[in-house]
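Closing statement on the S-adenosyl-L-homocysteine sub-project.
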Amino acid sequence: MQAVLKHAESTHQLQKQDIVRLLEDEATAADLFAAADRVRAAYVGNEVHLRGLIEFSNTCKQNCLYCGLRRDNKKITRYRLMPDMIVELARKAQTYGYKTVVLQSGEDPYYSLAMMQEILLRIKTLGLAITLSIGEKTREEYQAYREAGADRYLLRIETTDQALYEQLNPGMNFLNRLRCLQDLKELGYEVGTGIMVGLPGQSLESLAQDILFFKAINADMIGLGPFISNPDTPLKAAGGGEFSLALKVMAITRLLLPDSNIPATTAMEALNKQGRTIALQSGANVVMPNVTEGEYRELYMLYPGKICINDTPAHCRQCIGGKIAAIGRSVAQHAGFRNRKSPEQL
Ligand code: SAH
Ligand code: SF4
């Protein structure tokens, strides 16, 4: 196993079977995390990029079995933030020092193309980088968002097991999701994808396949976290994912994509009080602190146990800054686009 790790650390390549063995093996877990931390330091450095997350609507037309925002969940109170409020949150994010805002929502047709363009153009005048995470759209819509100033797009593939994907996402089509990622890449976005770890019916082979998919599409950003069972969804009886397995998937992803941007996700911290700090020391180099205000934080409930629902954006900024300083890292003062290394450098 040590030889496999060494090989991965120096060549950034792994065979599927070796990924499975690393995922299974407990004895090498600490060495895996240390190797991922070294690769992170060597390729993307000690700076941590902060992205201010604005959860602007919890209304969704999709019905993903795992998610609390799914259309058939009648137990949550739905909200939508108006463009003025979204722009105001972006402006505040800037005052906390964020260089990027992430606009995330359910798939909510209320926000017409014209509305999104207006929001993007107004935020762009602030000089912020913008990441969108608003689901599957047409190529024309992606192009229009890009022209209005969107720089990056997050769209997790969730799982690369097509049958599992289509079972978990009724009415959605795996090939369309791939089409979206392809369109986004062609339109010049920095493209982020990712998965949930520990979905019911997901095997270690499937996780290995997911990691190889990130490598195959050369994803600029990879967000992953444990699946957390939500009592208001059809997966209420499913056992959730484990922190340690999610961390291993993340660490192996860092070994294979050394120069990508990898967030220490909120879901990691939902399962472990030190989750984001541990993730930052096991390959991650990005954190997405919440800048949504008031009751909306709590209403944007993808899964139970969401962290920081009663905190203010100012508190989150301070808290995360403290965690980063405590592990000897620093907060980046620039937008934090992927710093691609040429093949010779990899
Ligand atoms: N609607 C958009 C963005 C919001 S959902 C989209 O689906 O792309 C953002 C992410 O939350 C999803 O990609 C999914 O990976 C994650 N998520 C949803 N339900 C979850 C759960 N129960 N546990 C962990 N992560 C979850
Ligand atoms: Fe909607 Fe995204 Fe949740 Fe699916 S994961 S129900 S698309 S918010």
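The two ends are 22 Å apart (CA to CA). With this model delivered, the sub-project is considered complete and its resources will be redirected to Aim 3.
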